[in-house]
Design a protein that fits this description.
This is DUF2207 domain-containing protein. By secondary structure, the chain is mainly alpha-helical. It has two domains: about 80 residues; about 250 residues. The protein has 17 helices and five strands.
């Protein structure tokens, strides 16, 4: 029995080591030699989420992206009970691309009644399945573009080994605890059982993607953007004072011209909030925006116009909902500027048509 327990423990430790390695590699980006302060020209948020392997954050980041580009307003609604929901109002005159409409449909559904407000299902599984389909369509497009080469089955193998480990170690542990086994045997079996459980917990969900060499510049740019979001404020200012890659900027002319000013930096940092959500540093970035919001609001309110409006809404949302990552499951209403419920179904049909050869 001792030999069996030692073998189970050794196998369990090897498997859990591979699971930890898989977790460390999940979402790992190739190192960028420079700091980037804007998305690469031609990039879009859902595609960047796939290239960064941050699919689970794509919905919340997509909603915030629509807000910071002044296409929708995100408003907290605390009238429905204990948990706040988010009302999404389309800005009058805003135009939406196929991917943006597809995201709205993924969160709100196709069928819309004629009355002003509709309460949508908060079923996480249903929303998750719909968003998964949206991500799969994006993966297909990136595969046809030569950026994604398929998926690895390594994570699935680790999950299978974890389940087999449970089947092997649970009975052994029960026998060891109930019988007269020596403490070393019992301890080895318990440790082997813990390793099997840890394997299932640590192994990332889904399948790891394999990216082609053509995807390297895009993924390196994302790492450069992540570095910009995590460096000190003084380093960010120096980066903006000597921009290296202005030709890559996909920013409005007025925003690009204001990069050297406090208002311009604030607007740029507001635009980067969706990427902070993708990289899991939205709390820190919102704290940075809150400080900048307070400073700007106290010094130059007349010159700001609507520059602070979006951040004010988002700060209210954070206080009400608790986390920007939860926005995808806290959404309540989708209405247009005139009060009518919006039908976004055509957007997904157009998006699917774009992906079809």
């Amino acid at each position: 029995m001792l030999a069996v327990s030692v073998i189970c423990l050794l196998i369990g430790l090897v498997v859990v080591a591979f699971a930890i390695g898989s977790r460390v590699r999940a979402g790992h980006l190739p190192r960028s030699l420079v700091v980037e302060y804007a998305p690469r020209r031609g990039a879009h948020l859902l595609g960047d989420a796939v290239l960064a392997e941050r699919d689970r954050r794509a919905a919340a980041a997509g909603l915030v992206d629509l807000a910071v580009r002044r296409k929708v307003r995100l408003l907290a609604d605390t009238s429905g009970g204990k948990r706040a929901t988010v009302a999404v109002e389309l800005v009058d005159g805003a135009s939406f691309g196929a991917r943006e409409l597809a995201l709205l449909e993924a969160l709100f559904g196709r069928e819309h009644p004629g009355h002003r407000v509709r309460r949508f299902s908060k079923d996480r599984r249903a929303v998750g399945r719909t968003l998964r389909t949206l991500v799969d369509l994006e993966v297909d497009e990136l595969t046809r573009a030569g950026l994604v080469a398929g998926a690895s089955s390594g994570r699935g193998a680790l999950r299978v080994l974890g389940v087999l480990g449970l089947f092997a170690t649970v009975p052994g542990t029960v026998i060891a605890l109930a019988g007269t086994s020596d403490p070393i045997t019992t301890g080895c079996m318990i440790a082997a059982l813990a390793a099997a459980i840890a394997t299932l917990v640590v192994t990332p969900n889904g399948r790891a993607r394999r990216f082609t060499p053509a995807a390297a510049p895009w993924r390196e740019h994302l790492d450069g953007l992540r570095r910009y979001l995590t460096v000190a404020e003084a380093d960010r200012v120096r980066t903006l004072q000597s921009p290296r890659s202005a030709e890559l900027l996909d920013l409005p002319d007025d925003l690009r011209a204001e990069l050297g000013t406090e208002v311009g930096r604030f607007r740029l940092h507001e635009r980067l909030l969706p990427y902070a959500i993708l990289f899991g540093i939205e709390r820190e970035w919102m704290s940075h925006l809150r400080l900048a919001y307070d400073e700007l609001g106290a010094t130059s309110p007349a010159a700001l116009g609507d520059a602070l409006e979006v951040t004010a809404d988002l700060l209210t949302l954070v206080d009400a909902v608790g986390s920007l990552v939860e926005l995808g499951f806290a959404v309540g209403d989708l209405i247009d500027a005139g009060g009518g419920v919006v039908d976004a179904a055509g957007g997904v049909l157009e998006f699917i048509g774009d992906l079809t050869p």
